[in-house]
Amino acid sequence: MAKKPTLLTTTLWDFPSQQYGDEQQGDKNYRGATPAYILWNLLQRYTRPSDLVIDPMAGSGTTLDVARELGRRALGYDLQPTRPDIFRCDARKLPLQDEKAAFVFIDPPYSTHLEYSDDPRCIGKLDAQHREYYEAMEQVVAEVDRILRPGRHMALYVSDSFQKGKPFCPIGFDLFAIMRQRFEPVDIIAVTRRNKNLEKGNWHAAAVEGNYFLRGFNYLFIMRKPEAKVRDKRGAAAPRTSAAPAKDAPNRPVRHSIERGPGHAGPGRAPGRKPGGFKPSGRKPER
Ligand SMILES: C[S@@+](CC[C@H](N)C(=O)[O-])C[C@H]1O[C@@H](n2cnc3c(N)ncnc32)[C@H](O)[C@@H]1O
Predict the structure, then answer these.
(1) How do the residues of the chain divide into helix, strand and coil, expressed in percent and rounded to 5?
(2) To test the ligand 1 pocket, which listed residue (53, 123, 126) has its Cβ within 8 A of the most ligand atoms?
């Protein structure tokens, strides 16, 4: 039996397998399946029972299975449905009313590394070297914004892309900038990639010889849709003025200050610092 998930408290996550426990979440043989532990942690923190969870690129259905196991309602969409409870649909035009979702999770294609379907609308056919990939993802993010309730959360799981002989594509940073136009960043998690294919062949020797790096982690970006009153006229997220959770936000298992960890001073004053503002000590900063 795969290890049971636990609530993680740092921004570095690593999982022994795609699935946990003795149930199945998604399909571990599906290329590109999201580790179910990620969904378990996100849904524990940002949803409560009966909340509606949406995955616009559901793949093998990991989000749906974890959400239902935890007593949440879940709807999944994909251009290439792998099972009957996933609806065929383009993530840029979801058949959902505005502000219906309590949480949205997306694990999109990261450039053209995997062939998901023959559908010409598949974003996995767009090379992240070109602006068309980011334009398509911008439309997906706009659709997530439309369906998500104000004050609630979304998360996007993605990797940068490097292909030998081509420039490096910092997809994570570029998608983060796109999401930041609409949402408030809550946190960024680095998730260790456990790509079994890298254990075979001469990938590591080739990376040394070619002086490049293999992808070791994925980003998990967690964002919150601002309350209507803090959105400016263009619809972009204005800087947050309060750390207070939304009125209908779930009871979090861990409070905000604890989530940020012991090294984070939080929105108030730094630990040990007296009120009255920052006074330079005259000493050089420590490195
Ligand atoms: C990385 S996989 C998702 C994996 C999934 N989270 C799981 O655990 O199995 C990306 C998915 O995006 C889908 N996809 C690509 N372009 C899409 C689009 N325009 N609309 C909806 N789904 C799309 C692909 O068919 C593929 O299933």
Answers:
(1) 25, 20, 55
(2) 123
